[in-house]
Amino acid sequence: QVQLQESGPGLVKPSETLSLSCAVSDYSINSNYYWAWIRQPPGKGLEWIGSIYHSGSAYYNPSLNSRLTMSVDTSKNQFSLNLTSVTAADTAVYYCARERFMSGLNYFENWGQGTLVTVPS
Amino acid sequence: EIVLTQSPGTLSLSPGERATLSCRASQSVRSSYLAWYQQKPGQAPRLLIYGTSSRATDIPDRFSGSGSGTDFTLTISRLEPEDFAVYYCQQYGTSPRYTFGQGTKLEIK
């Protein structure tokens, strides 16, 4: 069973860059899945951030596109998120997930436990 | 952008009762692109249903999904104590690729 584990700072200052990594265990990131980030502000709903394939091909939420970069490190079996110029509105639990996209089906099959990132106002 | 609206916002029921949760889309959604998740406090969401009606691995058969076009439903036939949680629908489409509903909280009456 695939395992995903987010890591990164829990506190980021306004205007700085939020950087998170997701380590994938018991499954190769070089498989036919996308790898995604999803966030959830405290007490609110879910927002898809972006998805990346092991080749580096990525697609982002247009609302974050200008500040977002995702990357993959196949040697470490992990993928990462960089979000620049953060504000308090970026405070959320950030989840990484394995995204199925084959056979006309698209959904998030497995999720990490999530990591809370706080940007003070 | 396809907006998903879930109703009701909160549903109060007792164990053993039947729960019906609605997800309405602002535009037609291909059935294979509609999924449902369950989230308990302090936990990550868990995939319940994909492709409108297919249960994910290890999901009990009391959970079922149905619908088409703009109207989709998650039904829990007989509520167990562990089913009280927040439920989200999700669709895959055009920009942004994925959107979620705002959630329905299923609480114990």
Verbal overview:
- The complex is a heterodimer of chains A (121) and B (109).
- Chain A has strands at residues 3-7, 18-25, 34-40, 47-52, 58-60, 68-73, 78-83, 92-100, 107-111, 115-117.
- Chain A is mainly β and 121 residues long.
- In chain A, the strands form two sheets. In chain A, strands 3, 4, 5, 8, 9 and 10 form a six-stranded antiparallel β-sheet that branches. A four-stranded antiparallel β-sheet of chain A has the order 1-2-7-6, with no helix packed on it.
- Chain B has 109 residues and is mostly beta strands.
- Chain B has no helices and eleven strands.
- Chain B has strands at 4-7, 10-13, 19-25, 34-39, 46-50, 54-55, 63-68, 71-76, 86-92, 98-100, 104-108.
- In chain B, the strands form two sheets. In chain B, strands 2, 4, 5, 6, 9, 10 and 11 form a seven-stranded mixed β-sheet that branches. Chain B has a four-stranded antiparallel β-sheet with strand order 1-3-8-7, with no helix packed on it.
- The chains are: A mainly beta (121), B mainly beta (109).
- Chain A binds chain B through residues 45-48, 51, 59, 61-63, 95, 100, 104-114, and chain B through 30, 32-33, 35, 37, 43-47, 50-51, 56, 88, 90, 92, 95-103.
Helix content of chain A: under 10%
* Dominant shape of chain A: globular
- Approximate shape of chain B: globular
Reported for the largest beta sheet of chain A, the result is:
6 strands, antiparallel
In whole angstroms, how far apart are the ends of chain A?
A: 39 Å
Helix fraction of chain B by DSSP (H/I, runs of at least 4): under 10%
